[in-house]
Write a structure and sequence with these properties.
The complex is a heterodimer. By secondary structure, chain A is of the alpha/beta class. Helix content of chain A is about 45%, strand content about 20%. By secondary structure, chain B is of the alpha+beta class. The chains are: A alpha/beta, B alpha+beta.
């Protein structure tokens, strides 16, 4: 074949290639792919504390064209229940899972095997599954320390002689432990007396008298999650004047918690930015599904330390009172 | 840098020079057409695309402005109605009331009920922040510091104006169901009258932010990437479709820059993205509605157009390339075929198949070439004939040289015999002479068989032997297979003559002359060898030299000579045929005639007579193949 013929065929081939490419681009460009299915499993999904998270998830799902399935769950008592839910979602064709680990006990949820086939993001903590999946959540130890700092500030830098009760129960055991660790480390530096430290509050309402007794023993009560905070609000409200001297500090961002912060029942509320947690987790999983990126990376979300005085600040009110769009 | 540029320039130049080498017509036409058409189509495509982009941009800009105008009208209507509520409350209710004895509750509730779809609350405060009245009736929060809230400060700060706040969470009343409302506060300073004493107060109308949001959501209904947002005159966002993300620092908006834009459209670059931004200021509030159309979003539709353009240009290019090939082939092919005809002519084929076809010009060229070749052929044929004529006349001239000398000598010998009364010898001599002349004449033919040539030689030698009284002996050793071979006539006799005159005539001993004829492959050799005086090598070399025409053949004998024979053979058969001479002084001389083997057949003889030895040779060649 002469050089000129070769040149001619190359030109023709180039033109045919460009035509094919442009046609393909036009055909594919017109079709928008099916949205990816992403399921979100959190403990007690209808709890108010998840409103911001859910908003974040929905906003990201809308922005990234993802079909969000926010799984309706009750209170998950064990990892088996959570496992069953997970299994069901996978069978229903979920391509991505955002999950809050209920337990970090040795018999924790098995996220290997079939679960490795889908993109997984863990909320709040890794549940003991180190390095296996991306975690989107706040730095729990840092939250604990921030809480301690707020308490120390409120008590003019000294906690000597103050009795402290810590409630770090509920779900997400590891996250609670981390918060507790950060908190207690910071408090111990202040020679504070930790009167009690309860990891589980289940059935607590049935023993209200006992709780009041606890409160009478504690000057400061610290609840390290939203459930605990709300429960303690109820306990304090039920306690009447007897509990009025008790200073409540909590972690959480539910409307109830914010309301009682406004009412002055809670002195300080540490609010993890759960909208961001929801948005970032969905964004990460959507990016991985849509662009086939490699291993997802952990992402830390910020938190706010809110008290009655600063809760209406421009920045804080934007986080505390979500605009439903 | 300069050196690098020079190197690049040199490379480019050498590249061009390489392409400046002569190319075939088809390649030249095809490449030129392709380049020109590609440039034209690319220019056309780009121009069309740019024109389309401009049109789309213009349309989008207009559409953005229309949406903005419509939204601004809706928003202004809404805000006006809110102002009217405030004005109605102030001018129709508060101004007429003596707050020492009257309350505002009834009228305020009526106004609230009439507009509660758009309102969260209406409230009136004294300048010390004490609540005068509120609708709907609600419990005021304990220890609330109204005076330092932004809306209050603004109302008191500029009493003559109605103030619109940016969206914020209402912090006035206690909602038992944990509800908090996002509101835009409309506040103005009012005059409160108590028993004729006027005091300053602040009237607050908290508009439901959702109403503004819904109003603006209508402008952001479609799923395209363009959107409308609202900000105050300082660039603080009031509404944005991604407001929550903005609050969380998950999204950014160029509102601070847009706050300084004049009303109208302009392009801006934000976060590496080109956007078409249209700004419209909302009356009274100073708020600005901003429509943003990302060029990439615009490009969503444009990318399809781009693909269509690329497809169109590529298709056109493909067609042009193929069309160029066909046209250039159509133009160049006849020329190429004509060129091939010329090449065939160059190889020596005087009867080439000249192509006649293609365009009129090429056909004309073909015809001209055809007639030129015909003329050339005719001319060459004429030259051949002319040469043949010339050759014939030369042959005739050469052959005619034989007769007078020899005849004179022989007749002289016969006369001498008759005078000596040797009648028998005279009769033999005359008989031999007659035979010799018969063969010499050969009815005018030039080509005879070797057999006849030998007979002629023998006749001659018989005559010469008598003349020379047998002072030499002659032997003929002719192979049978050469007798039937063609030869130019009278070529052996001159050699014999030379052998006698220069070889054996003056030698002391018995002269011996030997005539041999044999065949070697496709060649025939006739040798005349004598044992006479011989010659030195220099003499041998000069014998066949044209420049030495005064050779030994000219002095005596028939006067024909070796050169004569050599030329006659060469004229007929060409090189390498002719004479070869070997001689040693006192040893003798051998003259060898080299001829091609051509069987003595009528057809061959006829061809040789016409001087077409080449044709015989080619014929043999073809047969051999």
């Amino acid at each position: 074949m002469s050089r000129n013929k070769l040149f001619f065929f190359m030109l023709v081939f180039f033109c045919v290639f460009v035509i094919a490419w442009a046609s393909y681009g036009m055909i594919v460009g017109e079709k928008e792919g099916e949205p990816y299915q992403v399921s979100v499993i959190v403990n007690d999904s209808n709890n108010d504390r998840w409103i911001a998270l859910r908003q974040g998830l929905e906003q990201a799902a809308k922005d990234y064209h993802v079909d969000l399935n926010y799984v309706s769950t009750g209170k998950l008592e064990s990892y088996e229940e959570e496992h069953a839910l997970l299994q069901r979602e996978l069978e229903n064709g979920a391509e991505g899972i955002i999950i809050q680990m209920v337990s970090d006990e040795p018999e924790t949820l098995d996220l290997t095997g079939a679960f490795m086939q889908v993109a997984v993001v863990l909320l709040e903590s890794d549940g003991g599954l180190e390095d296996s999946h991306a975690v989107v959540g706040s730095d729990n130890e840092e939250i604990g320390r921030a809480m301690a700092d707020a308490i120390i500030r409120d008590f003019q830098g000294t906690l000597a002689g103050k009795k402290i009760g810590i409630l770090s129960g509920g779900s997400s055991g590891l996250a609670m432990r981390q918060r507790n660790q950060g908190l207690t480390e910071a408090l111990q530096e202040q020679d504070a007396l930790i009167a009690w430290d309860i990891s589980h509050i289940d059935g607590l309402l049935d023993e209200q008298k006992e709780q009041i007794a606890w409160m009478s023993l504690a000057d400061i009560i610290i609840a390290l999650d939203n459930d605990g905070t709300e429960r303690m609000i109820d306990v304090i409200q039920a306690g009447g004047d007897e509990s009025s001297d008790c200073a409540l500090y909590g972690v959480g961002g539910s409307e109830k918690a914010v309301y009682y912060l406004d009412k002055g029942v809670i002195r300080t509320l540490v609010v993890p930015n759960e909208f961001k947690m929801g948005y970032q987790s969905m964004e990460a999983i959507a990016n991985q599904l849509q662009h086939q990126t490699g291993q997802l990376e952990d992402y830390q979300v910020d938190y706010l330390v809110i008290n009655k005085d600063n809760m209406y600040d421009k920045k804080n009110q934007k986080l505390l009172f979500p605009i439903v769009q | 840098m300069k050196k690098r540029f020079e190197n690049f320039y040199r490379k480019l130049l050498s590249c061009f020079q390489a392409y400046r080498k002569p190319q075939s017509i088809q390649v030249t036409i095809s490449i030129s057409f392709t380049i020109v058409s590609t440039i034209c189509m690319a220019t056309l495509g780009i121009s069309l695309y740019n024109s389309f982009v401009n049109t789309v941009e213009h349309t989008m800009s207009q559409s953005g402005e229309q949406i903005l105008d419509q939204t601004a009208i809706n928003l202004e209507t809404y805000l006006r109605s809110m102002r009217r509520i405030s004005d109605a409350m102030y001018y129709s209710v508060i101004k007429d009331k003596n707050l020492a004895r009257d309350t505002l509750d009834e009228e305020m509730n009526l106004l609230y009920e009439a507009n509660k779809g758009n309102l969260i609350s209406i409230a009136c405060y004294t300048n010390s922040g004490e609540l005068v009245a509120a609708a709907p009736v609600a419990t005021e929060k304990e220890h609330i510091d109204v005076v330092h809230q932004e809306w209050f400060e603004e109302a008191v700060g500029q009493m003559e104006n109605i103030h619109f706040s940016t969206p914020h969470v209402q912090n006035l009343f206690d909602e038992v169901n944990f509800r908090y409302y996002w509101v835009v506060s409309l506040s103005q300073a009012v005059e409160l009258t108590r028993n004729g004493n006027s005091t300053l107060g602040v009237l607050l109308v908290d508009m439901n932010y959702s109403s503004i949001e819904q109003l603006l959501n209508k402008a952001n209904m479609d799923n395209s990437s363009d959107y409308v947002y609202l900000m105050d005159s300082d660039g603080e966002i009031i509404y944005h479709p991604k407001q929550k993300l903005l609050y969380m620092d998950l999204y950014e908006e160029n509102s601070l820059a847009a706050a300084n834009y004049e009303d109208g459209s302009r392009q801006e670059q934000f976060r590496g993205e080109k956007r078409l931004v249209t700004v419209k200021t909302v009356g009274y509030t100073g708020w600005k509605l901003v429509s943003v159309v990302p060029m990439k979003g615009l490009g969503g539709g444009l990318s399809d157009m781009r693909l269509v353009m690329i497809l169109f240009v590529s298709l056109a290019m493909l067609m042009t390339i193929i069309l160029n090939q066909l046209i250039s082939a159509r133009i160049a092919k006849p020329l190429q075929r004509l060129n091939e005809s010329v090449k065939e002519l160059e190889t020596g084929n005087m009867n080439p198949d000249i192509y006649l076809g293609g365009s009129l010009e090429v056909e004309h060229l073909g015809r001209t070439l055809q007639s030129t070749v015909a003329q050339l052929r005719q001319l060459m044929s004429d030259i051949v004939v002319e040469q043949e004529e010339k050759r014939k006349s030369e042959m005739d001239a050469l052959q005619s040289q034989i007769n007078p000398h020899f005849l004179y000598n022989t007749l002289d010998s016969i006369v001498w015999m008759i005078e000596g009364e040797r009648y028998e010898d005279a009769v033999f001599m005359i008989t031999q002479l007659a035979s010799l002349f018969r063969i010499s004449l050969s009815r005018g033919k030039t080509i005879i068989s070797v057999e006849d040539e030998m007979k002629h030689a023998k006749n001659y030698m018989n005559i010469q032997k008598i003349r020379y009284k047998n002072i030499f002996s002659i032997v003929f050793l002719i192979d049978e297979n050469v007798l039937n071979c063609c030869t130019v006539k009278l070529i052996v006799q001159p050699l014999l003559e030379n052998a006698i005159y220069y070889g054996v005539e003056y030698m002391d001993g018995d002269g011996e002359i030997e005539v041999k004829g044999y065949r070697r492959g496709r060649d025939v050799y006739l040798e005349v060898r004598d044992n006479g005086l011989g010659m030195p090598e220099e003499t041998v070399r000069e014998l066949l030299n044209e420049k030495n025409q005064n050779g030994r053949g000219r002095k005596r004998g028939s006067g024909v000579g070796l050169l004569n024979v050599h030329n006659r053979i060469r004229l007929r058969f060409g090189a390498p045929y002719g004479l070869e001479i070997e001689s040693q002084p006192d040893e003798g001389t051998t003259v060898r005639i080299h001829l091609p083997y051509i069987s003595y057949e009528t057809e061959n003889v006829a061809l040789l007579e016409e001087g077409r030895f080449r044709q015989i040779k080619e014929g043999e060649h073809h047969v051999k193949e």
